[in-house]
From TrEMBL:
It comes from Parachitinimonas caeni. Residues 5-199 form the N-(5'phosphoribosyl) anthranilate isomerase (PRAI) domain. It is an enzyme of class 5 (isomerase). Keywords: Amino-acid biosynthesis, Aromatic amino acid biosynthesis, Isomerase, Tryptophan biosynthesis. This is N-(5'-phosphoribosyl)anthranilate isomerase. The gene is trpF.
Amino acid sequence: MSIRVKICGLRDPETAIQAAHFGADALGLVFYEPSPRHLSIELARSIALAIPPFITRVGLFVDAPSDYVQSVLKGVPLDLLQFHGNETPEYCSSFNTPYIKAVRVRPGLDLVKYCQIYCQARGLLCDAYVEGTPGGTGAGFDWSLIPDNLPLPLILSGGLDPENVATAVSKVRPWAVDVSSGVEKSKGVKDLAKIEAFIAGAKNAPK
């Protein structure tokens, strides 16, 4: 199986295009105002339109009002939604757009049951739990907390970077990996060399 790679938090068309040329399978645009990677609808549209074909354009939201998500969908050509908050399954399914659900992993959380609750999701994105922060922290978590029998495709996130992604892919064997802060030179500013190294590390990881 070839691992899929998502680079999240893009903030300009040029970096998005380069990430696609490096082999990214999906590119994430953040619509969460407290994040340093937050985009206006206008800028997000320019990035989304610049992305080459066959690359999945993902919009990330955190407990956003429904009308805001609808306004983004009207202005930005997105292929997939990513929900990082406490959104209900009914909410996530209400936009007539495929979605993935993120969960912040910690001991005691039943991930199999979580997948059953969000059974209409296209995948489960497992991220690190950091109090008060929904994602993009760069923190890792104990991969052994992820069971082998998840009923949804696993997207591994949280603390991944060019140095550890090959190990993560070999040990966890997820469907995809997702990175944001791990390929940045400063908060919200991507590093092209790190993006290229991350994608190469993931896709060349020992099977």
